[in-house]
Amino acid sequence: MTKKVYTAISADILHHGHINLIKQASQYGDLTVGILTDEVIATYKRLPVLDFDERSFIIENISGVKEVISQDTLDYTDNLLKLKPDYVVHGDDWTSNDLKNIRLNVIETLKQWGGQLIEIPYTQGVSVDKLNETVKSASSMPEVRRNKLKKLLNLKPIVKTMEAHNGLSALVVENAKVVKDNEIESFDAMWLSSLTDSTAKGKPDIELVDMTSRLRTIDEIMEVTTKPIILDGDTGGEIEHFVFNVKTLERIGVSAVIIEDKIGLKKNSLFGTEVEQTQDTIEHFSQKISQAKKALTTKDFMIIARIESLILNKGMEDALTRAYAYVNAGADGIMIHSRQKEPDEIFEFCEKFTKEYPNVPLVVVPTSFNKVYEDEFARRGVNIVIYANHLIRSAYPAMMQTAKTILKNNRCYEADEACLPIKEILTLIPDK
Ligand code: SPV
Ligand code: MG
After folding, report:
1. What global pTM score does this model have?
2. For the residues of 178-225, what is the DSSP string, one character each?
3. pLDDT tens for each residue of 124-155
């Protein structure tokens, strides 16, 4: 009987190494190729350039391929259990890279029916890094970056978003990655927080850092990253100004702006009712949304309305009434905010809102209700989770500690332990 052979690939940037793999694998029997889904690639690498159907079409037309199936997880186990192949073929590069654990799972699973893993030498001369660099610079262009958030919303159960306030923190969001047993975790998008942008400049979060300055930060971050950007637009300011600003943001490749329904001197929401804050009228804020929507050119750019009713103790009814009104005014999504430690009011809002508008993206910022896991939010209908301030909140105590260590010791030897080695800081940012 003909043997069954399985291999899995992304096939987004196709090169001679793939052909080599397929050629060799097909010599062992009937070859099924698992194509990683867009969602898997988006988490593991970046949004694919070609979508799943396009990639599958290419691979099924390569000679030596008997069949193409989808692989819905980075881990092979599900497909292997379905197919029970005699052989899995893979390049030998995965013994040492992020796929190490995935490889071990393959070996374990194959043991169940005496299957075998065949590792072929990784094709030399393939400059994947160079190909990736080309894709990366193309994918930081405004037209490409802008619609990434909408694409991710379609692909992922929840879009994981982390704050960035300058080039370096944005590089952390771009590159941070954790390898687990059978998956790889990374952030999907960046939140350009007003709190952290202001704090990084030593200023209070009261719309003092103006749009001209915010645009400088955005540009600094855009220069070194490819992930989509959600801008904290504070109150959006005057309607007449907001209409201009959304056009600028759209043109430079920001994916979304979130504006909050407050008016007058804005203070940070996490103060709640401890400081004076005034909520806008539904009519005026709805106008701000609808006029800005009319000014846009593309369908990619999103204006998300942020509701402050729970922050200001105005109650659930008020929050929901506002949410429905803002959606009717054209908002592309709703952010519901709360400063309660327990997530109850957020969950109640999610349940009621998603019943009415199951397809309108819902955003939460769990700074206070921080025990909830992402998959629980996703189950309750949340589409974007924003970790709004955690990089700067962790950087500040680390910097203060180092400063004090040097003051205590009157020399810097003791501080070295908590510092990045000089060699690493010199090479952290490549010079090309
Ligand atoms: C920010 O990050 O600036 C926000 C979210 O607006 S919060 O600080 O929770 O108000
Ligand atoms: Mg803010």
Report:
1. 0.94
2. EE-SS-EEE--EEEE-HHHHHHHTT--SSS-S-HHHHHHHHHHHHHH-
3. 777 676 777 788 888 889 999 999 999 999 99
Q: What is the pLDDT of residues 308-348, one digit of tens each?
A: 999 999 999 999 999 999 999 999 999 999 999 999 999 99
Q: Choose the catalytic residue: 205, 232, 261, 300.
A: 205
Contact criterion met (CB below 8 Å) for 355 and 128: no
207 alpha carbon, closest ligand: 2
* pLDDT at residue 354, as a whole number: 98
Distance 180 CA to ligand 2 centre (A): 32
Contact 169, 161 (CB under 8 A): no
pLDDT at 2 over 70: yes
Burial string for 208-224 (b: 16+ CB within 10 Å, else e) reads: ebebeebbebbebbbee
Of the candidates 297, 165, 145, the one whose C-alpha atom is nearest the C-alpha of residue 229 is 145
Query: Ligand 1 centre and the CA of 193: distance in Å?
Result: 6
Residues contacting 76, CB < 8 A, separation 6+: 6, 8, 34, 88, 102, 105, 106, 109
51 is catalytic: no
Question: What is the token pair recorded at 418?
Answer: 């908590």
> What is the per-residue pLDDT across 206-255, written as a single tens digit (0 to 9) for each?
999 999 999 999 999 999 999 999 999 999 999 999 999 999 999 999 99
Q: Alpha-carbon distance 233 to 340, whole Å?
A: 23
Bridge partners, residue 335, by sequence: 306, 363
